[in-house]
Specification:
About 55% of the residues lie in helices and about 15% in strands. The protein has about 500 residues and is α+β, with helices and mostly antiparallel strands.
Length: about 500
């Protein structure tokens, strides 16, 4: 048999109906019981002295009972006057001695005197119920009084309050149209209330059902918002309604997940393209290296010393290019993996700029390029990672030298503005076109007017610089005009 799955509204409705029926049943039972108890208590209190008055006012009972036939006639007369009562005379042991002929058939020959004595001694709270002689398992309220002959107990006058005639009349009243209409009115009102509550629950749970359906659709689509087929609804995040706040959180969650998935897909595509391009770049130096080494291995003896030295130099150059490329790949992967730790310390920025520029003096002179550091007369300190800061400046200066023609100039300049220190690397080289500027920080991107040299360049340098400056709490920016030069800038917070 297939398992039945119920939605939240169905479970809530079934619980409501079951709970409503249980509460209604308990209410009917409790109200009936309380009504019966109160009616019995009031009737018994109203007739508490009935038996004692009858004993005192009737000579037969007052002087002791010897003529049971005369007592039966007395009971008949009393039942004519009070048809809701049944009169019995019982002996000191509870045996029923006589009763009115109007009572009808009696099933008990003896009653329990415990309730009778409790009634006479008034040592229990009303209502007190005793045996009904006309039934073996039914009990009723009563009035009772002892009957003495002098000091000798003859028995007890036992008066059932609300006898069989009273019960028959009460049952017929329950079947009357007025009572039936009242019962039908109560049932109809209860059903109306139940259906009204079900409708309210339907209205209350409809937004939750819509939200649940949207969640299922979003999950079934593989968390793709474009193919999920759901429309993000407007929710009030400041509402006191929990569903409104839940809907707001759901919209934010699916938007965030969708954005992250799109970013992951884009990153994955970039990685695939990067790997494809890098594998191509790696093949070139490897193929060259393999060719020269095989030539040396197979024809080394037939080559002159000059040729062998030339082949070795070319192989070494390809090997260095290959190592440089692999180092850049690992550096970029390391930065993107988020496993970089910073070792910050207080650094004299002017001193660092002069040291780095000094490293490139020889290379700049070889191209007849004028390179200088402009730091002013102030000694400004920053709290940063000196190794990563040096790596950024080294990459930027290397790019500037490569793209600057002979007799050009490169300036590394710093200037303080409030609490920040801006560092600019400026050249008067070939510049960057407006179309290329938007992409130069992407891995593997190379400008259309790039300058070539004897080294292999995979287009990873600026991507590495951008990630390193981001780690240092700065943002790398660029300004350039084609044919007029380029300026790369980033700002660091000055140390106190």
């Amino acid at each position: 048999m297939p398992k039945i799955h119920l939605c939240f509204y169905q479970r809530l409705s079934i619980s409501l109906v079951a709970g409503f029926l249980i509460i209604l049943s308990l209410f009917v039972f409790a109200s009936t019981h309380i009504n019966k108890t109160m009616r019995n208590e009031s009737s018994q209190l109203l007739h508490v002295d009935l038996a004692q008055l009858l004993v005192n006012d009737n000579p037969i009972l007052k002087t002791g009972v010897y003529d049971y036939e005369a007592l039966k006639n007395l009971f008949h007369t009393l039942m004519v006057l009070g048809p809701s009562f049944e009169f019995y005379f019982v002996g000191p042991d509870g045996e029923i001695k006589t009763y009115s002929k109007d009572v009808g058939e009696v099933e008990l020959k003896k009653i329990d005197l415990g309730p009778v004595l409790s009634f006479i001694n008034k040592d229990e709270y009303f209502p007190i119920v005793g045996d009904d002689p006309k039934s073996k398992d039914r009990q009723k309220i009563f009035s009772a009084a002892p009957v003495y002959d002098g000091e000798q107990l003859q028995g007890y006058l036992y008066v059932i309050i609300g006898g069989e005639r009273y019960d028959n009349i009460a049952q017929s009243l329950q079947r009357s149209k007025g009572v039936q209409h009242l019962v039908l009115g109560i049932v109809a009102g209860s059903l109306f209330l139940m259906f009204a509550l079900l409708l309210l629950f339907k209205l209350f749970t409809a937004p939750l059902k819509k939200l649940s359906d949207d969640m299922d659709a979003f999950s079934a689509s593989g968390f793709d918002l474009t193919t999920a087929g759901i429309s993000t609804r407007e929710y009030n995040s400041e509402s006191k309604n929990e569903i409104q706040r839940l809907g707001t959180a759901f919209n934010q969650m699916i938007s965030h997940i969708d954005a992250q998935l799109r970013q992951l897909k884009a990153t994955d595509n970039e990685r695939k393209m990067l790997l494809a391009d890098l594998s191509h770049d790696l093949r070139t130096p490897l193929a060259n290296l393999q060719g020269f080494i095989e030539t040396l291995a197979l024809k080394g003896d037939s080559l002159s010393k000059q040729e062998r030295d030339e082949f070795v130099q070319i192989s070494l150059k390809n090997l260095l290019n290959l190592k440089h490329l692999i180092d850049q790949i690992f550096e970029l992967a390391y930065l993107e993996g988020g496993h970089v730790t910073l070792k910050k310390e207080t650094i004299s920025l002017p001193e660092l700029l002069h040291d780095i520029v000094a490293k490139f003096k020889v290379k700049a002179i070889s191209k007849n390029i004028d390179i200088m550091a402009v730091t002013g007369n102030t000694n400004i300190h920053v709290f940063s990672d000196i190794g990563k800061l040096e790596r950024v400046l080294t990459n930027l200066i290397e790019n500037a030298i490569r793209h600057t023609a002979e007799n050009g100039s490169i300036t590394v300049k710093m200037h303080k503005s409030d609490t920040m220190v801006e560092v600019d690397v400026t050249d008067d080289g070939i510049g960057i076109s407006a179309d290329d500027i938007a992409h130069i920080f992407e891995a593997r991107y190379q400008a259309s007017n790039k300058k070539s040299d004897s080294q292999l360049h995979a287009g990873l340098g600026l991507a590495i610089c951008q990630k390193l400056t981001s780690l240092l709490g700065a943002k790398l920016s660029v300004k350039s005009r084609l044919g007029e030069g380029t300026t790369f800038s980033f700002a660091l917070k000055a140390s106190d």
